[in-house]
Amino acid sequence: MEAANLSAAATGVALPSGPEASNSSPRPGAVVRSTPGGAALPGREPPFSVFTVLVVTLLVLLIAATFLWNLLVLVTILRVRAFHRVPHNLVASTAVSDVLVAALVMPLSLVSELSAGRRWWLGRSLCHVWISFDVLCCTASIWNVAAIALDRYWTITRHLQYPLRTRRRASALMIALTWALSALIALAPLLFGWGEAYDVVFSTCGAFYLPLGVVLFVYWKIYKAAKFRFGRHRRAVLPLPATVQVKEAPHVAEMVFKARSSTLTFQESGDSWQEWKEKRAAMMVGILIGVFVLCWSPFFLTELISPLCACSLPPIWKSIFLWLGYSNSFFNPLIYTAFNKNYSNAFKSLFIKRR
User: Fold this and answer.
1) Does the keyword rRNA-binding apply (predicted)?
2) pTM over 0.70
């Protein structure tokens, strides 16, 4: 996500402010080449290096993969009726924001990268629209991650007080708040024209640091709750003779027994299945949060520190941090589909015809 203020959008990019002059004199911001005598003459822009072409190719592949993977998730959720419920509506909201990042934000960001030191030919209005969509879509993607973490937290810690009907209402409310808050953060600088420092601080806090605090707090609570529940349900190891045989009464829940030497370990099938699901959900949320923090922290740290200390990183590092943040939209669908085998089966049903 680019800096919230519009001036940061055109860093190193010359924006045309009016009709271009038709005379033969060099235009402001135009690329010139030097003669042996040192005179500057208008000419064509220098060709891109092999390294630049390689980087651009990788970024194009990243854009295409991000768009197609999130689109596949959306199509799967729409076509499979079993996915028309919580938490798949939160996954769908995240996929929508990530599809928009890949379709509307990343391509124009690539154009901006290629225009660095050259000229932005797409116009100032499109530049402003691009920045607004950048902030909107990336902020929505980040807050959707926080919404998924909250849903998992309530499911694990309050599974009795959090029935399906309540879960539907809560997820719908979180989706609405996610997009409303994202729109406010994206449009506020345009509507009120805040100063650069206040603009950046407001955008970075609302788009990253506030949801970061939410997801870290939620995962800490999930970890504590899971540790408490799994520790409480853990069965003690009982010393018994190696020849002892245990038979379970018919009316008691099914047990799994393993007799080895002088110890006997056992667990209940129902509890083990529930615990396995909760552990898997907690692991998914942990990986989702970890990848989110790793992808976006460098960019937002520099965005917050730079205007406050009047310092700036080299442009190459800004670009690296920005695209690292964009890559979070590629990793999101990989994470929450890898921990749900139903998605794998649904993907196969979309491409493999049933005989």
Assistant:
1) no
2) yes
In Å, what is the CA distance from 156 to each residue of 16, 153, 340? 55, 5, 16
Residue 244 lies in a domain: no
24 part of a folded domain: no
Assess if residue 329 is contained within a domain. Answer: yes
Residues facing residue 259 across a β-bridge: 264
CATH number, domain of 102, equals 1.20.1070.10
The sheet carrying 263-268 orders its strands as: 238-239, 263-268, 255-260
Q: Is the dihedral of CA 59, 60, 63, 68 positive or negative?
A: negative
Tokens coding 338: 């890898």
Q: What is the pLDDT of residue 233?
A: 55
- Residue 291 maps to a domain: yes
Beta carbons of 147 and 213 less than 8 angstroms apart = no
Other CB atoms within a 10 A radius of the CB of residue 314 amount to 8
Which ranges of the chain would DSSP assign to H, the alpha helix? 50-79, 88-100, 106-115, 124-157, 164-192, 196-204, 210-233, 269-309, 315-326, 328-338, 341-351
Q: Indicate the SS3 state at residue 257.
A: strand
Distance of alpha carbon 263 from the chain centroid: 47
Tokens 């920005």, located at residue: 322
Q: Which domain holds residue 136?
A: 51-234+278-349
State the pLDDT confidence band at 212, using cuts at 50, 70 and 90. Answer: very high
Q: Say if residue 300 is exposed, middle or buried (CB neighbours under 10 Å; 0-12, 13-18, 19+).
A: buried
**What does the mean pLDDT of the chain come to?**
76
